[in-house]
Structure formats: structure tokens, C-alpha cells
Specification:
Layout (H helix, E strand, L loop, with lengths): L1 H6 L2 H5 L7 H18 L3 H13 L3 H13 L9 H12 L3 H12 L5 H11 L6 H13 L7 H13 L5 H12 L1
């Protein structure tokens, strides 16, 4: 209630969220449009909108892009060369979601496994992309781009589970099942 807020102390007023900028609203609209287009399976139009929203800090867009590429929901061809260049630039700047996207791009390319591993390792920097820990566990568990290490694989699967990543359960279950 706004009247109650106006009557509160300065300390409480300072904690009231500031109004959103017009820019953030534009990128939230990009996300909303992307959701509609994605649902309609118009991936070529949805993915650039998700990327635009993600670049401007929309966390839902960042996670959606990671999930979509992890699941192979869309063909990587939905992302133009220009868009991939932008994502590579953002990855070089240290953005975890962009590093994860680059990892996904190279994940199935045997000649680029080390590069894929390096991207996924950088995607775990701030624990903001739970799926990155699953893929890091897979990399260690199968020796993809890195020396095989089952202990580290399990560690990263557990870390993913701790971050709420449901995909990690099947991998850790397989490790226990096949290790006994």
C-alpha cells in the first residue's frame, strides 16, 4: 500500500525498489515477445530477442538461452554468424551465460572439445548457470576436453543439484550405478 510506504521512516523508504528504467522495460518486452514466438516455434525470431534481453541483464532470458541450447531445442543455425560473434564477445567479457552458449556451440564437435571445456569452466565462475555444472561434470566424467576424473565429475553433479538443477540427478545416479 502506497500510503503505508509514504508514512514509513527514511530507512524503510531507502529499501523500496527504484522505478525501472525505460530500457529495462524494452528488454523485458523483448523477452515477452520471444516467449510468444518461441511457443509458436518461430525460433529464428525468438532467439535474437532472447539474446537482446539477456545482454541487457534479463536473467530469465539468460537461463532460457542456456536451457534451449543445452536441450538442443533449436538448431544452432537459428543464431546468425553475427549473433554468434556478439555472443563470443560477451563470453570474452566474462558473462557466464555467453560462455555457456559458446560451450554448447562446440560441445558436439570432437575437434573443439578443449575449447568447449574452457567455455563451460568459465561459465561456472559465479555459480549463475546451474547447467554449466552438469556439463562440467559430464566433461570430467567422460574426459571430454579434460583428463577423466570421476571424483570431480561427482563434485560438479552435486554442485548442480545444490543449485537446483534437476538434470544433474540422472548423471549422478548413473555414476553410482555404474561405479559399483
Amino acid at each position: 500500500d502506497i500510503n503505508l510506504w509514504l508514512m514509513n521512516s527514511d530507512r524503510e523508504r531507502k529499501s523500496f525498489p527504484s522505478p525501472r528504467s525505460a530500457d529495462s522495460q524494452v528488454f523485458d518486452e523483448d523477452f515477452e515477445k520471444a516467449e510468444v514466438l518461441f511457443e509458436a516455434k518461430e525460433f529464428g525470431e525468438a532467439i535474437p530477442l532472447y539474446c537482446s534481453a539477456a545482454e541487457h541483464g534479463n536473467r530469465d532470458a539468460q537461463l532460457k538461452l542456456c536451457q534451449v541450447l543445452y536441450d538442443h531445442t533449436v538448431s544452432f543455425d537459428c543464431l546468425s554468424d553475427e549473433l554468434w560473434e556478439k555472443i563470443a564477445t560477451l563470453a570474452a567479457e566474462g558473462l557466464e551465460y555467453a560462455n555457456f552458449m559458446m560451450h554448447c556451440k562446440y560441445y558436439d564437435d570432437a575437434s573443439r572439445m578443449k575449447e568447449s571445456f574452457d567455455y563451460v569452466h568459465r561459465a561456472t565462475k559465479n555459480s549463475s548457470i546451474p547447467l554449466a555444472f552438469v556439463r562440467l561434470g559430464i566433461s570430467y566424467g567422460w574426459g571430454l576436453g579434460v583428463k577423466l576424473n570421476k571424483t570431480l565429475a561427482n563434485h560438479y553433479y552435486q554442485k548442480a543439484i545444490g543449485l537446483g538443477c534437476k538434470e544433474a540427478y540422472s548423471y549422478i545416479g548413473q555414476e553410482y550405478e555404474y561405479e559399483s
